[in-house]
Amino acid sequence: MSSNQDLPLSVKQDPKPRGFRADIQGLRAIAVGIVVLYHFWGHYLPGGFVGVDVFFVISGFLITSHLIAKPPKNLADVGHFWMRRVKRLIPASFLVILCSVAGIWIFAPQTVWQDWGLQAIAATFYFQNWFLALTKVDYLAEGDAPSPFQHFWSLSAEEQFYFVWPILIGLLIFAAMKYKKASKTVVLAGIGLVFLLSAGYSLYATATDPGAAYFSTFTRVWEFAAGALVAALGTQAHAAKKDVASLVGAWGGIAAIGFSTLAFTGDMPFPGYIAAIPVLGTALVLLSNSTHKYSPNVFLNTKIFQFFGDNSYAIYLWHWPLLVLMPFMVDDFKWPQKLVALALTLIFAVLTQKLVEVRFRKFIDASALLSAPRFLTAGSLVLALFAGAFYLTSVRVADDAQDINKSLASVEKTVGDDCFGASALTEACGKEDAAAQTTGQTVAPAPVAAKTDKPVLYKDDCFASQTTNFQERPICHYGDGKIKVALVGNSHAGQWFPAIDTIAKENGWKIDTYLANRCAIMGEDQKFDDEASAEGCGDLGKWVTGQIKKEDYDLIITSNRQSVPVKGHSMKASEEPATEAYEGLMEEWAGTGAKIAVIQDTSWPGATLENVPDCVAENSDDLNDCSGSAEKWIPMDPQAEAAQALDDPDVIKINMNDQLCEDDRCYTVIGGILAYWDHSHLSATYAQSLSGTLESRLEKALKSDEFFPAA
User: Strand 665-666 and strand 509-516: pairing?
Assistant: First the structure.
């Protein structure tokens, strides 16, 4: 197989080399097309993410074909192989990273600089997939905006494959020669073993830790190996064929890719076993290599498919940064603006292909001074220094914004006592709405600092999480008073801790926490993307009930956000079974003699906003753009409904949404205080400011002085 066909997204120049397969260029066009359309208009192609899997298979096939034709005989050959990859891939990727960092600096709010600066470094050194596996599957990061470098996860996985694969193929061929075995058999056996091991691990990891599994190189190697197996079968196996069998195979493979694109959705565990459909479908097209007059080549060989195939690598590189950064440049980002972004993608891609992928590579080939190793070293250093400087600047900006007390004093002076914090929502403020008074004024915490304005519970690791399938169940203890209080629920119970802790210190409470990320503690399995987490969440509720019975609490304060459906139900249909589950659970809790206070779930900006601090940073001149209708923002709350339905004087409901909303409007900056640290959770500062209001409502509802001796 000719060497200029050995990259999944690589460029092609005329004249076409001997052995060139136009159908592979057509497959590249399909792959990049469905990925781009998925990112721009995902509701039309919900499974368009499988285009990446198509690329992986093509990569495995072409790279292995090249290595079998010219196997590396020593480390020098391996080094030459790596440098060819550098010349083909690195210049264009470095250009896009550099332009993206510059675009962030100019257009994006400071709230994203720190995270995106780190991702720029990760993309530069091609470990973006591991960065995302370790961070972006974190529940606390789910509201973060995707970075312009997120798509580098797949390129990172490919680079890691390229690094290891020539060594493996070289060792297999060396072993065959040493032990006088047929090279084809040994190579097939070796690749087959890698295929089976990686596929097995992919099934396991997708079932147990699907978030990390999606980005892991180890769960994806079998996809490269699927293409490699086709290559290892030999040229006769995938020689051009005109028979009916090849015709059926080629169309069957195309159909498998098309089916995956339309039938798969982002909430399916992936890669796992369902990835076999697009992976084996792509491998089948490569194996069939049909030249029948009615084969898919009818369209794969056309000029439009060849154009997109030729420019696929550059299209893939440019489309995502433009899609992420353009909303910061224009007021609305809808169909017309997306079409502009798509047009710019094609223009930049063609220029990159001609000026960088082709001419710059020829310049490196001809230059005695700028060899591939020197370019890689110098380019990496320059880009890392640039991205590092950007990151350090973002750290300094964040540090400068950390003095929240000073910021609060400044805001209080600006808006006045009557309109500070939740007071802005009272008649005493005399303003038309809560947002208007802080338009163009200082906000506290500053948006950059707000992202870390979380309860101490996170630093103290007080949450059970999906990472361990809710099997690790930490209990955190605060205070040493005589009144025993349990704080129970998911992160929307945890968000109230700053207020509850203040109340506890004033009244002699001892608080034990029973908290989980995402899992609503109701004693029922919920629809997580892996079975172990679904069952673990249900078991967690039963375990909490056992702890409550054992510890003999005086008061249980609980709240939950219903962000995951009850197992076997849609989100909308979950309301009734969830309410019933909460009723049964709280009846058991009340049976211990404890009082139960249910805090109704707070308004949820995530219904219309991606991230509150980002929105506030972008719209400081008109904070109304970061508000929303109460109808959309106030979520269903089965636990609050259950508390109402029980009609038990020992089970009370507290609604604090009037501290976030007025009439039919809900706000994210209230009386100068930024109320959320992401798209969902109250900032510690705003929760703390509500401690007096929460205490008075608890005292009134509980109708008992025993909990409030300080009063």
Answer: unpaired
Between the alpha carbon of residue 610 and those of residues 45, 614, 676, 680, the distances in Å are 22, 8, 12, 9
Residues belonging to the chain:
711
> Which residue segments constitute the domains of the chain, with CATH numbers given?
3-393 (no CATH), 408-702 (3.40.50.1110)
pLDDT in tens, 232-248: 998 888 888 899 999 99
562 close to 578: Cβ distance less than 8 angstroms: yes
What is the arithmetic mean of pLDDT over 14-23? Answer: 67
Joined tokens for residue 561: 């956000």
The Cα-based distances of 33 to 39, 86, 279 in angstroms read: 10, 25, 17
Q: Is 616 exposed, middle or buried (0-12, 13-18, 19+ CB in 10 A)?
A: buried
How far is it, in rounded angstroms, from Cα 48 to Cα 33?
A: 9
Report the distance separating Cα 546 and Cα 563, nearest Å: 24
Residue whose C-alpha is closest to residue 520's, from 488, 557, 551? 488
- pLDDT of 75 over the 70 cut: yes
Q: Which of 123-132, 291-300, 442-451 has the lowest mean pLDDT?
A: 442-451
Give 12's pLDDT tier (boundaries 50, 70, 90). Answer: very low
Q: If 0-12 CB within 10 Å is exposed, 13-18 middle and 19+ buried, where does residue 643 land?
A: buried
pLDDT band per the 50, 70, 90 thresholds, residue 379: low
Residue 19: count of CB within 10 angstroms of its CB: 12
CA gap 282, 55 in Å, rounded:
9
- For 444-478, letters b (16+ CB in 10 Å) and e give bbbbbbbbbbbbebbeeebbbbbbebbeebeebeb
Q: Could you tell me the sign of the dihedral formed by the alpha carbons of 144, 49, 468, 148, in that order?
A: negative
Write out the two tokens for 106: 């100019």
Tokens of 395: 């750290």
For residues 351-367, give the mean pLDDT. 75
Helices (H), 330-358: 335-352
pLDDT value at residue 284: 97
Reading the block at residue 140, the tokens are: 């606390």
Please determine, for residue 433, whether its predicted confidence score (pLDDT) is greater than 60: no
In this structure, what token pair is assigned to residue 114? 């720190």
Phi, psi of 661 (to 5 degrees): -135, 155
Q: Which long-range contacts (CB under 8 A, 24 or more apart) does 187-193 make?
A: 187/68, 187/232, 188/229, 188/232, 188/233, 191/64, 191/225, 191/228, 191/229, 191/232, 192/225, 192/229
Place of tokens 């609980």: 558
CB atoms closer than 10 angstroms to residue 263? 12
| Distances 331 to 326, 328, 524 between C-alpha atoms, Å | 9, 8, 43
Residues 513 and 498: beta-carbon distance below 8 Å: no
DSSP string, 232-272: HT-TTTTS-B-SHHHHHHHHHHHHHHHHHHHH--TTS--ST
What is the DSSP secondary-structure string of 418-456? GGSGGGGGSTTT--S-TTGGGTTS--BS-HHHHTT---H
Q: Which amino acid is at 523?
A: G
Using only C-alpha atoms, what is the Rg of the chain? 29
Are 634 and 388 a contacting pair, CB within 8 Å?
no
Query: What does the pLDDT read at residue 364?
Result: 61
For the chain, the average pLDDT equals 88
